[in-house]
Amino acid sequence: MKRAVSVTLHRDNLLWLKTRVKTIGGRSLSDALDQIITQARAGAGASAAAVRSVAGNARIPRSDAALAETSAQVRALFRRSVQRKKAASFATRLEKLPSRAAKPRKRA
Fold this sequence. Notes:
Layout: H1 11-24, H2 29-41, H3 48-52, H4 65-96
C-alpha cells in the first residue's frame, strides 16, 4: 500500500530525479523515488530482515506508564482474538464429523 508524503529535495537532486524519470520512462517522480528507495534497501550487504522491516526505528521510553498499559491491553486483545479463532476452527471441525446418534439398545 502506498501513502502520500511530502518530500523536500535540493534543487540538484530534484533535477536529477526528473531526468531519471525521463530516462527510464517512468510515470512519475513518486514512482522513481519509490524505486530508488526499494533498490537502496535491497542493496549490497542488506540482510533480508533489513529489506523488509523498519522495526526498531522508534525509541520509546520504558518509563512511559500509559504506553506499558496500552501494550498490555493490545496483547490481551491479540490473545483473545487468537483464542476465538482457534475455538471457531475447532467448532467447524466438530461440525464436519459424522453424527454419533445414540443407537437403540436391545432389551434382553
